[in-house]
Amino acid sequence: QPDANQLHPISRPSERFNDPDHLNRPTSVCGIGIYRDDLWGASFEGNAFVCEPVHNLVRRFGLLQQGALVRARKFESEQSREFMASSDAWHRPVQVRCGPDGGLWVVDMYRFLVEHPRWITPQRLASLDMRAGADMGRLFRIGRAGVPFREVRDLTRMQIGELAGSMDTPNGVERDRVQLALFHRADPACVPSLSRVANESRYPAARAQALAALAMGGWLEWNLIEGALRDPDHRVAAMALRFCERFLQQGASVPGGLWSQLAELENNPAPVIQQQLALSLGQSPDLRAGKLLARLAQKHAADPWMRASILSSAPPHISALMESTADWVKPGADPAPPILIFMEHLLATALAHSNPHAAGVSTVNRWVESDGTLRGWRLSMVARWVETTKGMIPGSLGPRMMGVRETAADSSAAIPDRRDAVRLLGWMQEQRGLDLEVLGSLASSSEFPELRSAALERLGKSGDSTSSIMLLKDWGRKSPALRTEALQVLLSRDLWIHQVLEWIRKGDMAAQDLSPAQRTALLKHPNQGIRELAQASLPPAATDDRQQIVLRYSNLPSIQPPAAGGSNGPALFQANCASCHRFKGNGFRVGPDLDSLASRDEPFWIQQILNPNAIVEPRFVAYQVSLTDGREVSGVIESESAASLQLAQPGGSPLSILRSEISVVRPMSLSLMPEGLEESLSREAMASLLAYLRAPTAKEQPSATRQPSAPPRDPKALAAILLDARVSDAEKEGAAATHPHLAFAILQELVRELGDDSKEEYRRIPWMWRVSLMAGRRADHGQLRRMIDLATPQPNERLRDWQAVVIGGGVINGLSQAGIQPGPRIHDLIAGDRALLARWEQALKLAALMAESSTVPEGTRYDAIRMMGMETWTARGDQLRKFLGLTTHPELQMGAVSALSDMPEPEAGLEIAKAFSLLTPSNLQLAIDAALQRADRTLIFLKAVDEGRLDKKHITPERLEKLRSASDPKIRTWARAVSRE
Q1: Domain segments of the chain: what residues?
Q2: Full-model pTM
Q3: Measured between alpha carbons, how far is residue 16 from residues 21, 326, 704 in Å?
Q4: Range picked from 553-557, 720-724, 871-875 for highest mean pLDDT
């Protein structure tokens, strides 16, 4: 068979930044569209078209129904080529749609770069224009040679009957348009035309969609459904089945002939009919539905999708289905594997039933009675039943419980049978003592780890005080692995925790047997009594000051990255990290994978290892779960659903817990990673461990193909790129734009060692402006606060040009562009720092002087004028007014308009309005847009229009739409009046 995943691009292979081994393989599948028309002929009708932008192509597949699944296949004529391919490496098809004209429409995003920046090294990223092609997107409309496009009709001009009749078309997009128009009109006069389409159209899809349109309007009657159930096209009949569901529901009036129709469909061979029938029967509580479901199950048990459909409809019919399975089981014989799989899933469904005893206990009895021995699938089923029902023993099982104990202890029995037998031990009170002896023996055995784990789990669930005695027995002779597993069970119940701590206090157990994570959990246990006992029993840590410990481990001894097999790093990782982290293919995925962190520096690693709770990423917060049987378990929530919770636990043992078994879930507000690892890691050991963790995991690849999960970010290198005359502006823009979180750090590097050289200052200023503007637009408060501190002159210093650019042109301008009033926001950022506030007020006075200086470039004077807008109208209004004059340099005039727009006082808005006739065209548009941001300024603007001081041509459709949706009723009224003119 040809490889369906082999792509056939005609473009030259581009530089790949990730998955270089996936060249000519699908890596960016998206934009799937179906050709919903017959205009191009039967060979294209219903085809799927799939975009692959990385490889500059669109693929075509035929869709085939195979059982309950739909499978895609490539056509023979396209085995070595693609439906659409381009030699242009910037061609990026991302969406395909069939149009109402019968054409195929393709959206081409048209970009140079489609990879996410995280896959590209900063050095290479700095040389790329991330946005190249962003303004060049396009649409293709594809037609078939010699076949004209369909006319696209204006549905708004049609009467209701004509509109409904327009549903009779082979074009699915046109049918969607018609159905949407009918939905909005909600006119029952469409019913006769739609009914004719549903009964008489030669297009099966049109018949089905006409039924759907009638159902959506509440106009679909039984006679139409009854006819559609006999439709020669099985897809129409399946749609009709869905519309039967309202008649099947509890209390509904069932039309005559419905059940006979459903019985006929049981024998319809079409898979889509069989699956829809299984799904729809779940809507009915009628016993006939249950019997019909059972017959479908026996017929289709081997099909996993049909099995899932039947089980989804099972809850109302548990008893009927369970009894039917008992009829399928013959004495002395095992059911066929597909039937057995269905029975297992059905049992699980029954156990989730509100009354499992009534739903299935008689069936479980019949399963057991059908054979003389309790082995194999019967034993597994009974174990699941008893566990889930918390010891509900079916009547016929009682006499056989001694046999179960013998099976668990029988070394010649099959391991699966022994494991299932273990699950049944300890439930019957009269045999509990003997059962616990067997469990204790198996829990201490090193022969079969699978049986040992099952026995430990069963002892943990039993909650019996004898269980803890069994686990603590002969503690000194247990292997380290056995101690680790036993402690995980012993620490799951408060009573047992007390016993463990007492053993440690008396010296019968070493405190070192507890892992750092367990020690931390005990010292911070929610039960105060346990916390106090842990503090009294466990030897105190050297210090509780985490940062002091971190400092003690700074400047570790230098150790070269290990050669293969030449370091104790792997052993240290295995002993201290592998239970929760994966690295180089070893360990368990509870916390983050460490391969992705190899490039991080030494201080990062030391902080994370020795002070793990300083910053806890939300997805790695540990949770403590109290269970209804009294146990306490903890771990990281790996996944959850409406029915269960999956906890990842140290050592890689995931624990699945049903919601019904959970009493309380509490976040521990701590990382699962414990504090105290310094007790097992000396400075030398830490150095060896970090040398191992930070060593490259593979031979260094070229930067264009390496896949760094956490590439290094170096503000100094980025600043150097911005100032490098050999690097294009587009590449510099890419370097800055892809590191917005480093804006302040880059600015700091741009300012470093600047000196008083004005020429050098103005070489750097353009990039100082860009990075500060970027932070302002993002309203990145942390970075803005540091930028203001850096750019505000110290006492008795002058305001330098670069400082005015950063504050006025970057921070203030950026906040305004983000729709934020810069004055109040900056005051909030610096209000808590009295020294900075004093420097800020002095900087604003210096800005007013700079704005008047003719020796300062106009661009920088603009930035100084923007700073004046941070003061009050009383303080700076008269000075700003001077810059609104007709002969003022446009850049200075723009600064004054912006500064007055930033001022909150009404006088500032009136001053701008007075100057409308003096402003340059671009500054006038700026003033109008600024006025429309605030209701009081908008009213001033509208008054200027009414009085003829401003031409109505400035009320563009976009601005009028904004006025119509204003919160002020006066503004809305004015806008409606203008709309009517």
Answers
A1: 20-142, 400-482
A2: 0.58
A3: 9, 59, 6
A4: 871-875
